[in-house]
Amino acid sequence: MRKNLLGVLSLIFLLGGLAQCGGSSALSGDVKFKVQPTDPVVVTKGDFTLNPGLTNELVIKAPWFEYRSSVENKSGKTLYLFTYSFKGTGVKNGGTVTYEATIDPSKSCDTSGSTRAYLAVIPDGGRYRGLADLTGCDYTDLDADNYETWYMYGLPEADTAFYNINVTGEGWFVDSDGVPIERLNMFGYITTK
Q1: Is residue 18 one of the residues assigned to a domain?
Q2: What are the residues whose beta carbons fall under 8 Å from the beta carbon of 8, sequence distance 6 or more?
Q3: Which domain does 45 fall in, by range?
Q4: pLDDT, tens digit, for every residue of 74-91?
Q5: For 130-186, what is each residue's pLDDT tens digit?
Q6: Residue 187 lies inside a defined structural domain of this protein
Q7: Is residue 181 part of a domain?
Q8: Model pTM?
Q9: What is the total count of domains within the chain?
Q10: 189 vs 167: CA distance, rounded Å
């Protein structure tokens, strides 16, 4: 019986070791992701219109906060960053309220009304913080100086402006032929105030 138990334990450790080596997040481990700021202020009163009168006009309804991020790719592969997803919680009357949102890349392109299919193509050694040329939605031109600002709105009403939000970067790595080889595994956290 003891011999069988040792055999089972050995098999479990062997399989666990194989799962860790070259697992689904091997390339993601070489991507640095930073949320800016990690503790944004939630505006609880004060709706406004982004790009008023233009084709991409959008009403931002309170409560909302500004979101920016930085992604640096040192994986040795090209990374397609498609979107960010947000899942958060707050407290209302002693219960939990939830927030879910996904960035639509086509909504951000300044006053031109242009659209894009994804946030960025980040080559090995590249860093994405926003668009270099917002007027043409040139999402292949990475910008090292300016952060792209997203207005995250639709937060549920809560007792305070404190929300804990998990941010997930969605995308994949591609080989030299542009074929997806691994899914991006990238997470960040926001605590609002």
Answers
A1: no
A2: none
A3: 27-191
A4: 999 999 999 999 999 999
A5: 765 444 454 444 555 667 778 889 899 899 989 999 999 999 999 999 999 999 999
A6: yes
A7: yes
A8: 0.75
A9: 1
A10: 6
